[in-house]
Amino acid sequence: ISGNDLTQQKVIRRQITLRPDRPLDMVKLAESKKNIEDLRLFEGAGTPLSSVKTTVQPADPANPGVRDVLVEVEETNTGNVGFIVGVSSDQGLIGEFRLQQRNFDVADVPDSFDELIKGRAFRGAGQNFVLSIAPGTEYQNYQITLGEPYLFESDYSGSASAYYRVREYDQYDENRYGTTLALGRRFGERWVASAPVRLEHVDLSNIDSGAPVDVFEVEGPATLT
Fold first, then answer.
1. Which residue in 11, 33, 8 sits closest to 150, CA to CA?
2. pLDDT tens, 29-72?
3. pLDDT tens-digit map of 158-169
4. How far apart are CA 225 and CA 223, in angstroms?
5. Quick count: other Cβ atoms within 10 Å of Cβ 82?
6. How far is it, in rounded angstroms, from Cα 175 to Cα 202?
7. Which of 210, 215, 166, 156 is nearest to 186 (CA)?
8. How far is CA 155 from CA 142, 149, 170, in A?
9. DSSP collapsed to 3 states, the chain
């Protein structure tokens, strides 16, 4: 494998269905190329200009009947930064800053500030990281999410999310904070199952005296699972 200056070898290798010392299967080679492109971590993936190339090398005269496969990739920008500003008749003035990195590495701590600024830190393990900061006059949402598609290089995947939300309704205010944990597993090449679990703290406050009785009954705080 060549061209992966940031992405770890294992991120690419686990998408290759060919195995050493097995018959060379051109169908599996084509599937492997598509699997790597589907990661969306490399330049032009999924287009005619895709940088992902799989090439069967000439046979080694010293080892007749055995060939290597060269996988070439070209790194691309896998991070997104977004800004949103809006006005809603129901939620007031809303703003959001969103940061996503599809090739995150939680263990790749920067060695210097320059490495962090140039985007060469916290990258390369194929994890998905999302940070959302959304302040507003009547609604606020703050959330951070980290997903690992191959826990301990197994068929299991995992993700964790923590959030804090505030909503000002006409008759009361609502505060929520909690976490969502999910564990998934791949079965073969087509089937995936996932089981999420949510734990949330909910609190109602500033209840208007004219609010329905039901609102006072669930004033809280309460725990939702």
1. 11
2. 999 999 999 999 999 887 888 999 999 999 888 888 899 999 99
3. 999 999 999 998
4. 7
5. 10
6. 6
7. 156
8. 31, 8, 47
9. CECCCCCCHHHHHCCCCCCCCCCCCHHHHHHHHHHHHHCCCECCCCCCCCCCEEEECCCECCECCCCCEEEECCECCCEEEEEEEEEECCCEEEEEEEEEEEEECCCCCCCCHHHHHCCCCCECCCEEEEEEEECECCEEEEEEEEEECCHHHCCEEEEEEEEEEEEECCCCEEEEEEEEEEEEEEECCCEEEEEEEEEEEEEEECCCCCCCHHHHHCCCCEEEC
Instruction: Of 119, 93, 94, 122, give the one whose Cα is nearest residue 106.
Output: 122
Name the nearest CA neighbour of 107 among 94, 95, 121. Answer: 121
Residue with tokens 């032009």: 44
Q: Which amino acid is at 179?
A: T
